[in-house]
Amino acid sequence: MPTLKLIGLGLSAKFVTREAIDEISKCNVVLFESYTSLSCDINLDFIKFLNKNVIIVDRKFIENNIKEIIKLLKEKEDVCIVTIGDPMIATTHVSLIVEVKDKGYNFKVIPGISVHCYIISKSMLSSYKFGKSVTITYPYNNKIDTTPYDVIYDNFIRGLHTILYLDLKEDKIMTAKEAVELLIEMEKIKKQGLISDDRIIIVGQRLGCDDEEVVALRLKEVFNYKFKEPPHIIVFPTDKLHFMEVEALKCLMK
Ligand SMILES: C[S@@+](CC[C@H](N)C(=O)[O-])C[C@H]1O[C@@H](n2cnc3c(N)ncnc32)[C@H](O)[C@@H]1O
Q: Does residue 207 have its Cβ closer than 6 Å to ligand 1?
């Protein structure tokens, strides 16, 4: 039975699992989806080394070309869609599986180490206390989407931490500084007192790379801090911290 396989590669080459390597090596056609995340050392050449039949695909292809994917399944039997991180976390790929299953084909998910789990681990905050995550996006037509403010606020007052993914466009990658600038603009609109100089955030930079860094900073320190190149991710902790979380945060402060 033809099978669509969604394969996660983890954050960098050292996290690629044996299962991912085995599946990619034997797959008849490999589509490398490179728009939902990025890695310091996983690129087209890396995947080509495992399987020569690889094509880079963009958002348009994955989101609008289900017919093409079904055609490939009919012709090639096995189709692998390969992503950085985990294929099902902070992506919309579940819709592919639902459509393929609906047409009577098989599917398989091969998880990879996700930035979501990685930053929870490296933040050392209680994994039981993370609320809904959200993405901070660049303004569109000069309009700022304040959804992230609402999500953080809702989590914050319920004693929950928030993971903030940062916008990833074809031509630009949002940095932690740009994200904090946007949060400050959101505060001017929402005026609920969430964003203030002394709030602490955790910034994960280049996670999974040899030069990764995880640092806890007060918002007032963000603009003078020398961050590494993106990708960046932010954790916005609640102020209802367990005493052990307070100690963990101190370990991440410079
Ligand atoms: C939409 S999420 C996709 C997550 C991916 N599916 C996964 O499971 O890892 C992508 C966002 O996560 C963050 N991110 C991804 N990889 C990262 C890394 N290695 N270091 C820091 N942040 C990262 C960036 O904010 C990026 O825009």
A: yes
